[in-house]
Amino acid sequence: MKQNKITSKLYPLIKALATAAVLPVLFIYIMVAKPDYAIMNALGHVVVPVAQVVGNIVTWPFRVIGGAVENITELSTLRAENEELRAKLDAANINKNLCDVAIAENKKLTKELNIINAQPRDTLIADVVHDNSVLGHNTYIINRGIKDGVESGMAVATTDMQLAGIVIDAASNFSRVRALTDSDTNIAVRVVGSEVYGFMTGNGSKYPTMGFFSDPEFQPTNGIKLVSSNISGVLPAGLIVGEMRDDADVDVVDAQKMSQVLVLKFDTPHNEYR
Question: For residue 243, what are the β-bridge partners?
């Protein structure tokens, strides 16, 4: 019974398809054998739409398969691009994390060291042309003087901004600088990373000494860094002075090994660099 119903449904469909298949053949036959344009025009209105429908039905599976293949290809391309973008994003996140770590470490070190570098208005490069070490005194001559804007009391530093002395005399074309090891040197300093202050005094030897600290309980040890303080009003604060060798001696710049120095010029009076 069911088979008869299926057959009865398929028969009209097969008949329609057969008719649709015969119509193009009939149309071609008329065009070749009996070219009657009136009949051809009438059939054209019937054959062409039927042929389109039949063509669509016949090619439907191929179009579906082609669309599926195109979608699969596009999906594969999108997945590859997503993986590439994900890799780039991961690399960018890693770089960002490294930058964040570096910034955090920099802030931490700055906070721990508490170094405030005094920024000079101008720096003047000078050559060391002569040095003098006799009877506990240690001074040297530089080839810059008053005509270059050098004045007594100006700070002199190495090219990497470590304090190397103070100008004590200035002539027209040269100046005399007192080294940190000179016996007349007495510089107010601060222990980096703390509020402990003291005075570094030259003694004519290679290493000046620390003779006083504001905190009597502070224990100086090897490696402690010192920067200039403004409590004496002589120097701007924040210039690197030296490093403790032990509980008293300080390792500073050796004037006899210098060939060039920087003369530092500050706009603001020293007492504003505290």
Answer: 225, 251
Q: Are 118 and 238 in contact (CB under 8 A)?
A: yes
Higher pLDDT, 50 or 197: 197
Residue range 122-269 forms a domain whose CATH class is mainly beta
Q: Is 40 exposed, middle or buried (0-12, 13-18, 19+ CB in 10 A)?
A: middle
> pLDDT tens across 116-133, in order?
455 566 789 999 998 777
C-beta of residue 222 within 8 angstroms of C-beta of residue 259 = no
